[in-house]
Amino acid sequence: MLIEIVLRLYPSVPVNSRTAVRDTVLPHGGGKDGLQPIHIHHGQRVQYSVYALHRRTDIYGSDALLFRPERWSEGKTIGKGWEYLPFNGGPRICLGQQYALTEAAYTVVRILQRFKGMELAKDKEETRIQATLTIAPETLWVRLVPVEDAE
To answer: Alpha-carbon dihedral of residues 23, 29, 34, 36, nearest 10 degrees?
Structure first.
C-alpha cells in the first residue's frame, strides 16, 4: 500500500494521451467554469496529466502536495475511481502493474529485513526529479539505519 501511496505524488508515467476512435463528448471540462461538455472529434488526441491530477486539492485536500499516508485510511473514497491513475485505468491499464508493485514490495521488504528503517537525509540537498516520458528521482538522499545501531 505504501508503494501505491508514493505513486500518487510520483506516478511512473506523468502524462498520457488517448486518440478518439469516434466522435464523442466529455461531460465536463469546457467553458469558463469547466462544467460545460467538450466535443472530441474522431482522430483528435487528448492529453492528460496524471502528475497534476494527483495533486488536485479538490480531491486530496489542501495538503495535496504533502506525503501523508494516513489520508488513505480516513474513510474517503480516494483511489477507488478515476482520481488515482498511477498505472492508468480501464481496458488500457498498464500490463506491468502487478509485476511492478510486486517487485517494489519485494525490494522494500528486503531493505527492511536488513535495516531497522530509513529516513530522508535532511542535511543533504533537496530531492530532484527527472521527468521525461517517465518520472524518476534524479537524486534521493536517504539514510538507512542498520539493525545494530537502532537499539
So the answer is: 30
**Rounded to 5°, angle at Cα 20 from 15 and 23:** 140
Amino acid (1-letter code) at residue 133:
L
Query: What CA–CA distances, in Å, run from 51 to 97, 103, 131, 148?
Result: 17, 22, 10, 39
Q: Where are the domains of the chain?
A: 2-27+38-115
Query: Of 98, 139, 119, 131, whose CA–CA distance to 3 is shortest?
Result: 98
Question: Which pTM value belongs to this model?
Answer: 0.74
Cα of 143 vs its chain's centroid, Å:
23
* pLDDT value at residue 134: 83
